[in-house]
Amino acid sequence: MKPFHEYISRHAEHTPDKEAVVVCNQRATYGRLERNASAIAEVLRSSGVTRHERVVIYAKTSVEVIAAAIGILKTESVLVLAHYGFGADKLIHQLTEVDARTLIVSAEEDLAPIMGKTSLARIVRIGNSASFPAPTVEHLAPSSGSPSSVNQGLEDGEVRAIFYTSGSTASSKGVAVSNRNMVAVWQSVSAYLGDFDNEVILNYSPLHFDYGFYNIMMPLLAGGTSVTEAALPPEPEAMLAFIRREGITGLHVIPTALFHLLQARQDAFPKNEAIALRYIASSGQLLPPAHIQRLRLLLPHVEIFSMYGLTECKRVTYLPPEEIDHRPQSVGKAIPGVRVFLATPEGTLIDQPGQTGELAVAGDLVMQGYWGKPELTKKIIVENLFGEDRVLFTGDLFKMDSDGFLYYAGRKDDVFSRRTFQVNPRDVEDVILTHDAVSEAIVIPVEDEAVGHVPKACVVLRNGYTVSGDDLIQHCAERLDWYLVPAIIDFYDALPRTVNGKTSRSAVKAEQARSRL
Q1: Which InterPro entries match (predicted)?
Q2: I need a labelling partner for 160 at 20 to 30 A (CA). Which of 8, 69, 130, 502 fits?
């Protein structure tokens, strides 16, 4: 199996003048992308970056940053994509966890908050313009290794990239993947979406999330064009205009983006002959049936692929477009190269339709493990089970119908998704409880059509204290990443308790469910 980056480099040789990437109106051909990636690779090698060394990118998505990611892979070091804009503490945590010696940032990035708090040996600053000024290197400590050799071979099982999950600083985990994992994602997804060689794919997710990384890279692997926008436009009609203007043929998004698109005026949606859009691929959370129905009405010629996946196994299932009207609440069947199973809490196989069980996954897309967390890896990846060498337990509950189609039933634990970000209620509760006025707090998910779920905090105040819900939300906003900040604050005189006196999250959830009846 070829190294991941070589699939991209071959297009620079055969079609160097073809447009490869468009990022916020910044454009680059395959030839330019290859030159920029090679320049980054040479800077890293000459600076002493060694094979298997973790090289971290901390920057907004741009043509240069995409080239830098490819350049890292060229050096046979390990690409690590740190969450950009999530604060110094999270960056320090991720740099420390992977023992990074090299950090790539934009030319203007202020790194004062992290200096002296990591083991970094060098900082590489890259430009952000069409001229792609030569990267500059700041050496912070003597290099501990010798330059790597470009001719060294790679084993498919070796770690080539690390993607972080979207939890808090403490709970975010580094998902380590191999070259085989990365190539298998592309080969599997293209097997059911079609080859991307003549496609123009639009994506709104940043490179530093695995979903954005693959949405950006998959068209490049096949010789297509990858288009990335930093954010949804304020007016949904502008999204439709952009799709038409850029000749977008495939839209890879989470349901939030589709909810925004559906707010556009009905007369803004083009006729069949006025748009090149061939399909919409949605993942990250369940695509609501109401969204599907309206999309089918407004874009009847566009195929809709509803998918399910997780960082630990980038894609797991997809629902074929011909089934979307008949099974709108299903996430389909396993994608090519993946095998799925439902298991009881005891880990035994469920083979009867209609029963709920934890989804377990096997195949080439399953991660190598959590970086630096072997015990945690062992808890969710079980060897020699169900006739497979390795089986990943997802923590998600599903049902399967008699035809083998899967239906999401919820999380095994209390973690829930807001957009594509994982919200751990305990992370929010811990911060709320730092407020002087708060005695107790429980956070639960509340369904939200636009983003899936939002956190709702149920709070008991200390005697003699008063505080507003807005004040508590502000308290959280100053201490948490945005997706962890509660959208709703409810005040209780007392929280429900279990028989042993502990506050009961399940009872609060039950009260919430009854209140919606």
Answers
A1: AMP-bd_C, AMP-bd_C_sf, AMP-dep_synth/lig_dom, ANL_N_sf, ATP-dep_AMP-bd_enzyme
A2: 130
